[in-house]
Each structure stands twice: as structure tokens, then as C-alpha cells.
Batch of 3 targets.
Target 1
Amino acid sequence: MPKVGMEPIRRKQLIEATRDSIGEVGFAATTVQSIARRAGVSSGIIAHYFGNKMGLLEATMRELLAQLKLDLMQRLPENPTPEQRLNAIIQTNFSKTQVDPLSAKTWLAFWSSAMHEPAFAQLQQINKQRLHSNLKFAFKAMAISDPDLAAASLAALIDGLWLRGALSPEGIDAERCVQLCRRHIDLIRDAQ
Amino acid sequence: MPKVGMEPIRRKQLIEATRDSIGEVGFAATTVQSIARRAGVSSGIIAHYFGNKMGLLEATMRELLAQLKLDLMQRLPENPTPEQRLNAIIQTNFSKTQVDPLSAKTWLAFWSSAMHEPAFAQLQQINKQRLHSNLKFAFKAMAISDPDLAAASLAALIDGLWLRGALSPEGIDAERCVQLCRRHIDLIRDAQ
Amino acid sequence: MPKVGMEPIRRKQLIEATRDSIGEVGFAATTVQSIARRAGVSSGIIAHYFGNKMGLLEATMRELLAQLKLDLMQRLPENPTPEQRLNAIIQTNFSKTQVDPLSAKTWLAFWSSAMHEPAFAQLQQINKQRLHSNLKFAFKAMAISDPDLAAASLAALIDGLWLRGALSPEGIDAERCVQLCRRHIDLIRDAQ
Amino acid sequence: MPKVGMEPIRRKQLIEATRDSIGEVGFAATTVQSIARRAGVSSGIIAHYFGNKMGLLEATMRELLAQLKLDLMQRLPENPTPEQRLNAIIQTNFSKTQVDPLSAKTWLAFWSSAMHEPAFAQLQQINKQRLHSNLKFAFKAMAISDPDLAAASLAALIDGLWLRGALSPEGIDAERCVQLCRRHIDLIRDAQ
DNA sequence: TATGAATGAGCCTTCATTCAT
DNA sequence: TATGAATGAAGGCTCATTCAT
């Protein structure tokens, strides 16, 4: 049923179908056909809106990044204290959207592919650096002696918890992860 | 020219070629032919020694795990103190073999695939739990109040540092990672 | 913004775009979309005016033939002498329109396709016979002993020169071709 | 039925199937599958021996060229007179192999494609120049005043006759073509 | 024990055509 | 009259697997 002005609708549909497919059956088993079927459209439409499969995958990863950024923004009050900032970051990274198995698996799939796919690698780097600088900014404001080290430490902890959770059959225990991160921050601050 | 007693040689050859191929060109670009070419043998030989491609991949992951285990054993003195045990674990995880980009990328590729490949998932779980219980054992011996939590925290830190390093263009800075882990242990111990 | 009386304009636009596309990127790379883009219209319009792609291609070949015919008419004086007729034919076949690389390539593409496309084959035959009978008529009037043979010979020479020119990277050297044809006619006449 | 030493057999099989397919159904309708089916093998084998479809097409054109060259060699006596050389060239170009509709159509298809396919264009140029220089050599030895012009003329005549024949439903009338070429040579010589 | 020829399913992509607007 | 969204078939290519030698 051809319509006009379908572009934003279709793009959203296809990106969601892509994320779902990667999350459910994995990166390797995600084919153009599997995505199209999931979205309830024909396979040809992907070329129409995204040029090719890679274009759709890239758009999907961008969407995940945008979502993460938006999540954080919404959790940050105006002029947040360092503690509020750290809290917001932690909670964003273990929020429902990030922790839901579909997204988690999709993230990990992209990370893994990023190692040999420049287009993904670049996006991946953006994400990595954004987390690091956000954390560093907060630690600096808290007058932590080596904010860079503290940031690296907490960033790794977040990613590690997230990774282990994503790989675990039970999924991510968000509450426990948040608790572990908080405790880590307390240790860092108390050590000053 | 068929020879006898080639099995262990061929298996080693092929497993190494597999690890190198995954590390260098990625999981997706690693084909039976690319592995065979790298090993300097014909593609048919894989079926002969490993049944099929999956068999070879599984054997390769097993080999990585065995290597990691062996590394740790060799670093552990007899009757190690808890500190010695933690040190050995940390150093093993950031040892040359683990930190070299080929292995790191291969590990991550397997992890990512593990999410949808039961054979990999099982091996992955073994690894995860081994690290956790090793750490927990040490923390218990150190009379840390919640050794489970401490182990989860340090395990996540190790994996997170390792993950971020593997994804970084510069590779893993082993020394810095070890330092961060030590500092984390100090914080935990001092907080008691 | 639909307009009335657009038919002749659109048809011309599309036929020109088709010829340009075939000439520039070749028959195989000429798609409905590439034609529409070149003509600055949407792809759907082709079905509207020509039924389908084949209809447009056929119309394009017809246009080339009509152009050739018109060219000849304009070069023929009233009641031409046989020599004038031969001259006009030769000059028409190596005129700017025919010699320009776009047209030459388009002609050859159609010829090649004609071998397996009845619609093109028919048009192609018309062209071939027109040239032959025009030449024969002139040679007869010149009292050449075997006008049929002479016509076949000159027709082949014209087509051969044209073919070799079209295939040559430098394009067709019209002047030299005309000279060669004239010389051929001289030889035939002198041999009587 | 896998065998060893099949390469030359398979290559020949596939090249013949390609020529037959192009000749029978045309360049556009010649698919990897249609070739494989004709050769009685699977489609994958083309990649095995020729890399890809283009590799096979190129090999096919090379084969046609080689055949033409061989044909000429076999017709040339040792130390041929100029007349013998010209005769051999003419007869080769209108020999059974060249005149059979399959080959003729295949040649024309390649010529047409050559305009936009550098790989074909190069081969096509070789052929064109070989014919020209062969003719020129003979005309020079006959003390024709402008051997270059004479060669261009006869080359065009040969190609033109061949082209018109290939495009004609009745195929090429080899005898008549040879006769026309001979007459052309006579005219050139007598005009000295 | 080892080769590599051969298969064929499945992938991504291209593209003529259709049709609601 | 005109658009361009949408379809789906068909193409070329890749690749794990099989198997005669």
C-alpha cells in the first residue's frame, strides 16, 4: 500500500526490526529478509531507504547511541551536582532500555563487529569516549585526585558489569549493578 | 604424501590459524578456506580432524580457555596467599597472551557469538564462573565482609578493562590495567 | 503539478535521456531509474507514456531511424544525380548526428540487442534495406554492371567504417571515412 | 564426480557453454546459471575456475581471439605471397568458425559490450589492430601506393560484410563475402 | 592422511513494474 | 499528469560440506 510521507515511519520500523532481529537471533543470522519479514515489508524497501544492508545496520547503531544519549539527558537535572551526574550515568547505563536483553545483545554484537568494521568502530569510539569524559567531569568536580584514573575505573566497571550481564543467561541484574557502581564510587571518594 | 601421527600437529596448526584469522579479519570473514590457506593445508582437512567448521571453532575456544587456565597455574606459587592469588589472576588476565590483539579480538568474537550459540555459551560460562570463584576464594581468605560482592566487582572491572582495551585502536595497556585492579583491591581491603 | 499537452515534451525528454544513457553508460547499465533521473522526472512516468521500458527503448530506436531518414532527405536536392545521391548517403551516414559517440554507441547497442529482440531486429532490417536499396538505385542509374553487388559492397564499407570508428577510443574520423567511400565509388566506376 | 586434473576440461566446457549461450539467447540473457546448466555443471564451479562471471566472459572472448589467430596461421603457407596473405585473411574471417551464427552473435555481443567494459575493449583493440597491420603488410608488399588507406578500406569492408551478415536473419553468405573482398582487392590493385 | 573439485543453498543487491495518492 | 513508495523475482557471489582419488 504505497503512501506518501512514509519515510520516517519505515525507517523507524526497519531499525526496530533490525535491533530485534540482532537481539533475538544474532548478528550472523540477521539477514535482509529476516529484517524485512519482521518489519512486515518487502526486502527491496531496505535499499530504498538505507541504500543497502550496511546502511541499515549503521543507522541502527546510531539509533542505539542516540537513545542512550537521550536517556542520560532526561535523567540529568539542571546544574547537577557531581553525585547527581554519576548517578544519572549509572542509572542510564543500567536502565530498562539498555538492560533489556534485545538491546544488550545488539550492543555486544555491534561492539564485536566494530573490531573489523570501520563504520561501527567509529560510532563505538564516540560512545566510549562520551562515557569516559562524562565520568571524568564529575570526578573532577568532586576533587578526586586522579579523575582520569577514577573515570577509567568506573567506566570499566560499568562496561564489565554490563558485559557479564549481557552474556549471562539470566540477563542483567540492574539493581545489583547500580549498587556495585555506587559502592565503587564511595570507595574512591572515601579514599581521598 | 600422507604421514602418520600428524593429528596433534594438524590440530594445533588449524587451531592457531583459526585464532589468527578471527583476530585479523574477524569472525564473519573467517571461512574454512581462509583458515586452511593460513595453515597451509587444504580445506578438506578440517572435516577430517574436526568434523566441520563448528567443531574447529569450538576447539579453538577450548584452546583459548585451556591456555588461560594454564597461564594462571603457572603464576600461582604453591599454597599462595590471598594477595598472591589475586595478583596471579590479574596478571594472567592481562598477560601477553591474553592482551595480544589477536587473542583479544578472538575472545570478544566468541563472546558475542556465544549469545546465540549454545556450544560457545557453555564454554563462556565456565570461564566466567572460574574467574568469579577464584576471586571469591581469595577475598574470603582475606576476610572481606562480602566476598561475593567483591568478586563480582573485581571480575567486572577486569572484564571491563579488557573489553575497553580490546575495542580500543591502541590495544590493551596491560600495565595500567593491572595498576587499576590493584588499586581497586586496595580500596576494598582498606574499607573493611 | 499536472499539466496538459505535456505528452510530446515528455516523450522527447525521455527518448533523449534514453539515448544519452545508452551512449554514456551502455545498454546494460541503462535502467528505468537512470533514464528518469537523467530526464529529471520520476520513474513512474515511463509506464505512463511508453507502457514499459521496452516501449521506450523501441521508441528510441525508431527516433534514431527517423533522424537518419530526415538527415538524408535534407541532403538530397530535388532530382539528384546518382553522384549527388551517393554523396548525400555517405555524408548522412557520417554526419555529426550519426558520428557523435553517444549516437554511435546507442546504434551499436541496439544492433547487438537486435539479434535476440524481434522488435529491434525488425527496425534494424528496415534500416539495412533502406541503405542497400538507396545505393542500388544510384548505382543502377550510373549504369554499373552489377548494381546489387556494388551496393552491397559500399553498404558494407560504410557500416564497417562506422563500426570500427564507433569501437575506437578516438571515435569516428568522419572526413577520412567519407574520403574512403568516395575512393571506393571511384574505383567501382572506373572499373566499368 | 570430483576428479583431479579437471581444470582444462572444465575451462573448455564452460567457455564453450558461454559462447553457445551468448550466441543462442544473447548477452543479456546469459546468466551464470544458464551457462552452468548448458555445461552440465553447478553454478559454483565458475567461481572456482574463473573467479567470477566476468572472468569467464573475458576468457571466452580471449578464446575467440585465439581461435581466429590460429585459423589464420593454419591458412598461411610458409613465406606467403601478398596475394596468399590477403586470401588467407579473407578466408579466415569468413571461415566456418567465424561465420557460424553462434560465434558471429557472440562476437557482436562482445563488441557492443566492449564500449563500456574496459576488459573487453582492450581485447577488441588487439583484434582490430591485428587485422589492420596484417592487411597493411600485404598491401605494402604489393607496392600499393597508400597501404594504410587500402588496409583501412579492406578491414572496414570485411567487418561491414561480417556485421551485416551477422545481423541478417539468413546469416552470413561466406562465399559472396569472399567474392566481394576479392573484387575490392582487384579494384585497388588495378587502380595503381 | 590429504587434496581440491564440485555442489547447491542462501545471501545481498538490482530493477522493472505496479499503484495509491 | 505525475510521483515515488513498494513489491518480488532474478541475478551474481560466497561458502560449508561432501567425496573421488
Note: Chains B and D do not touch (no CB pair under 8 Å).
Target 2
Amino acid sequence: MSFRDTVYKITAKIPKGKVATYGQIARLAGNAKAARAVGMFMKKNPFAPRVPCHRVVASDGKLTGYSAPGGIVKKKSMLIHEGVMFKKARVDLSISRWSES
DNA sequence: AAACTGACTTCTC
DNA sequence: GGAGAAGCCAGTT
């Protein structure tokens, strides 16, 4: 299985109402320094609805990019709708950060 | 095969 | 806490 598939698999595990950082996913996938690559995978996102790429944020909780129509704004709305806590323009990681169970 | 690109992260100032 | 710079990875051209 390729690193990419692993990333998608992990991302798909993020529970509703929680978020994970690119670096965190990269680490779980085996490459702690592949956070950047992870971002690309989300951008591609071949498993659109199956993989909740909107639950992936930057290390500081900031919402970066979003390919789907609506962009960042839409992404933020979705997260709020799912119950994710926000701190201004950033996600409150101290509360909504996902802990791999 | 080499170079370019980007939805990242971390360190300094 | 905001701005700039350097490092790292996989995919695309």
C-alpha cells in the first residue's frame, strides 16, 4: 500500500466534530515530514465524500486551502456545523484536535 | 530523469 | 503575535 493510500485511510477515520493537522496525519502515515505532501493528497482527494478532507487543518488550527466550491469559507461552515470549536479564524485545537483513538 | 509546485512546519527577527 | 526564510515530501510536467 502506498503512502498516499495510508493517508486517505487515516483521514477517513477522523470523527465528526474533530479535526487533525497535516503534520499529525503525516506522522500517523509514517512520514512525519510529509505534511506538505498530505496537503496535496487532500487537494486531489480521489475519494471525495468518503474522505472528510475538510477536517484537516494546519498545525496552528488555521484553515488552509479547499478545492471544493465555497473554499475556506465553506470549509469553516462545515466544521462549525459539525461542532468544531473555533477561535476567530482558527480551530481551537485544545478542544477539537483529534486523538487517533 | 530533472525541475517545478504546493491545502505544511518550524525557526528567527 | 505577525512576517520572512529554509527544509521536506510526493505528484506533475
Note: Residues 21-23, 26, 33-43, 53, 56-60, 63-67, 72, 75 of chain A lie near DNA strand B (CB under 10 Å from a C1').
Target 3
Amino acid sequence: MLKKLDPILHSELRLAVMSLLISLTKAEFTYLKEQTNATAGNLSVQITKLEEVGYITVEKGYKGKVPQTICTISKKGIDAFEQYVNDLKEYLKM
Amino acid sequence: MLKKLDPILHSELRLAVMSLLISLTKAEFTYLKEQTNATAGNLSVQITKLEEVGYITVEKGYKGKVPQTICTISKKGIDAFEQYVNDLKEYLKM
DNA sequence: TAAACAAGTTTAAAATATAAACCAAAATAT
DNA sequence: ATATTTTGGTTTATATTTTAAACTTGTTTA
């Protein structure tokens, strides 16, 4: 029987962010925005959701004088991503 | 760069239906309902969407005296499913 | 010092998913 | 015979989610 997919990860933009962070561990907001082609508003909302469930941590600081937001994937986030991949494999017949 | 995922397939219930139909080619409404644990209302709506975009065809008839709805996957549906799987692989790092 | 720009956040609108309520016909119980 | 329940769905109203437009705060440039 097909498992229920994690609704936090089953969202195109949040999955894209997590996919990037799986490889990089951490990335700036602006980099994620470039790579995903998302609007800043949409990205901001989705990053907040990922943070709320503990899949990433978010540090706000400064790079010189300009604000900088850095996102880092957590153990919980890595585990959730892997679980999601496994669950999806059954849907995709892999 | 990550490709945009087909929004028709990037829906848990529609993906589950398509996953079943990829293996079986055709299936009854009641069977799909059992296998997905969906409510009839939700399943009805999602089947209609899959039909509207031409990923499945829907035949309504009778099995003896009781109504029977049979869903059949189309070539377009098979192609779309395969494309979706390929696009997702990049998100999932496969 | 005014205008444009960068890095985000907040909010309101649009789209989507979901289930509750409904319908028609058949089977079952009274 | 006639209520009552069950089966196989559809329609519609609500809840949730996504998305982008509008806004904020501070910075650089003209």
C-alpha cells in the first residue's frame, strides 16, 4: 500500500530547496532564490515552513552591511528527505 | 537547473491513481478507491482532472445492475508519467 | 539628497485539495 | 408493499496551500 507522502516535502519549491541543501548542507537565501527561480516572497514563506518543522535552521546576519540569511539542513531534514525519497519510489515504480 | 514538475501529476492522489494505472492499464473506480484509501468525492474530482488533460479515459457503464466506472491510462498519460519520473529524479538526486 | 537597488517579510489573492452533503438506483429488512 | 440501508458515484462548500504583489529597512549611486 502506498504510504502517505510528507506534505512538507511534497511541494515543488520546498523540495527544490531541500534538494539543494542535501548537496550543499548550507546556502544563502539569495543563492537559493537564483537556483530555484522563485520569487523572494514565495521563497521566504517556504523557508519559514521548513524551519518551523525543523528540517532546516536559519541564521540571519550580515555580509558586510547587507543582510544575509543562511539556511542549513538539519539531521531531521536529511532523514525526512530520505524517507520521502523512499516513499516516492513506490509511487514511481522504482 | 531543476525542471518544473507537471502540476497534474504532482498531487498525491492523482499520482497514486496514475501509479496504479501504469501497472494495470485499467481499473474500476471502486478498486482505485480501495487501493488509495481516498474518499469517493476526492477520487471523483481527481479522476475528472486526469481525464480533462487526457491522461486517462473514463467509461461509465454497468456491471449487471450497478454502475461501474472504468479508468484507462492513455499514451499521453504514460508519457507524462515517465517525464514526471525523470524530472523528479533530479530533485531526488537519483 | 533623491532615486534606484538589495534582501527580505507580510499580506492578500488565486489555486488546489479535501470531505461533507447530496443523488439515484438497487438490495435488504419489516 | 414499503421503509431502510447500501452501493457507486457527483456536486459543492470549506480548508489548506501556493503564489505574487505590495511593503519595509537599509544601502549604494547619481
Note: Chain A has a mean pLDDT of 97.
